[in-house]
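Each field is set out underneath.
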Amino acid sequence: MVNAYAPGSGSALDPADEALIARRTAVLGSPYRLFYRDPVHVVRGSGAHLFGPNGEDYLDAYNNVPSVGHANPAVQAAVAAQLGELNTHTRYLTDGVVEYAERLTAKFPSPLDQVVFACTGSEAVDLALRIARRHTGREGIIVTRNAYHGTTAAAAEISPSLGPGNPIPDRVVLVDAPDPLRGETDPAAAEDFAARVRDAIAELERRGVGLAGMIVDSALTSDGLWLEPAGFLARAAAEVRAAGGLYIADEVQPGFGRLGDWWGFTRHGFADQEFVPDLVVLGKPMGNGIPISAVVGSADLFDEFGGDVRYFNTFGGNPVSIAAASAVLDEIEGRGLIAHASAVGDRLRAGLREIQADAERAGSGAGLAAVRGAGLFVAADLVAPGADHTGAPASAPAPDGDAALAVVNGLRERRILVSASGRAGSTLKIRPPLVFDDRDADRFLDGFAEVMRELG
């Protein structure tokens, strides 16, 4: 795993933390991982900050789950009040789940007018795959080459980023995402991606499984946060639909204002029509850390599936989770957090590009390339020293995962938390809570500049 703690690889740890790590390893076992060369021990959070046991202040530029801020008072109050009144399942008639569903679906274009609730993004992905496969009568799914969609058996088999120990079955075909770092930025890149999807559809036919659908994280997060060229996902969806499949937008990471709009898929609309997926998957930031997720779709698809298949999720859409999710919508709307994310994100990217330009003028050995993103989802690649960072195809700068890891850990030493992603682990992943403000951005940029100077 990118940015995983390896025992013995860091500096001398605090004895109390060392003892806690030993206890954790003994009782939780090897499947669990910690971040950073020196793991971060936290005891509380507030806004875009996490705090250690001795009051250490960490700037959180990574966690999108507490989208409206760690320990958000409005979410706390809503959850506490609801927990003191009622918490049960959706087979009883309650007001909150209906009111929230109406608010949520109103933020989607027609015909996405119904929602089914679950607890985790993995569960929602699993349900979306079941709907697609039942609708089409086929099994094949197309995903991007380094995708991550979850940890259930069905979600893991479409998550190649989980590594070589996670086998990808024959009913799943991988396609390369557009890569602007290697020159795929002009409109032709959308057609190239569509052509790869056509080839994948044909491959599924050759394997005898046929196409059920394609699922893509609307920000291609695990592939390295690729948002351009605009419209390339809509072109891919057109190919999928022409072959009788469904297009599923995974909005678990980009949704709820992260990219400066409610949903990531809206960045990919055709010029003359709105791009509307067949199904949309939601999760993580939906409840600010309280487990809740959803599949949004059309009445036609849900009627077809629900008429034949009994679906029930005991805790999906329970009143406490719905109260948290409702408070999240209140916070996003009432505090103008989508516009805020756009403005602060612009500030971050502009500052990073200045740091990149300074490093290039100084002939720095650390290669920072392709700063990109939207809203408060920002990425930058670390490439081999001396590479041409213009993005011209001939330059093909080599990704430098070691340099990215050095930046991640250099920032952690300054109590600034980010991580890395992408096939080579060379893409910095900067994804703070939506309440991250100008002062937080300045602290981040100051620390980042210091780290880049050290690496140079």
In short: The first strand starts at residue 44 and ends at 46. The chain has two domains: 40-68+337-455, 73-334.
